[in-house]
Amino acid sequence: MSDVAAVADTATAGRSRFRLAIPLFIVLLVALALLGVTNQRLYGEQLALMSHKEQLLSQVAIARPQAAVVNGPQAVATWATANGMVPIPEARAARLIAASPAPTFDDPLPTLELRTIWR
């Protein structure tokens, strides 16, 4: 009888462990489904952001030539000429005005002398 009781106890213990497996499986299945739904939502947001970035890049490409009209090299040269500035090749009588030379200071006397004797 003791062998039969031992087998019955092991069968009961096995059933109690198996009884927890089904709810655990369902909980894991629901958690993975929620993870998949969240992942798909984030993927959709990423695709929307990527298409928005493409639109912004095309708008920047369109705006660059318009900005070059306002602050490009040719616009700056036109503005400078209109305000009385003379281009460098045409400035024949230009003088270079430099600041006065920097003051010179005497070097202090050396405080350490080194002599190397090679033999």
SSE order: HH
Main beta-sheet strand count, sense and barrel state? none
- So what's the overall shape? elongated
Mean pLDDT, all residues: 81
Strand content: under 5%
Q: Detail the poorly predicted runs.
A: none
Assembly status = single chain
Structural class: mainly alpha
Ends: how far apart?
Answer: 107 Å
Specify Rg, calculated over alpha carbons: 43 Å
Number of strands: 0
What is the number of helices? 2
- The share of residues in helices is 55-70%
Description of the molecule:
- It is built from 2 helices and no strands.
- The chain has 119 residues and is an all-alpha fold.
- The protein is elongated and about 115 Å long.
- The protein starts with a helix and ends in a 37-residue tail after the last helix.
- 0% of the residues are buried.
Topology, element by element:
Elements: H1 2-71, H2 73-82
Q: What are its keywords?
A:
119 residues, mainly alpha, elongated
Describe this structure in a few short sentences:
The chain is an all-alpha fold. Helix content is 67%, strand content 0%.
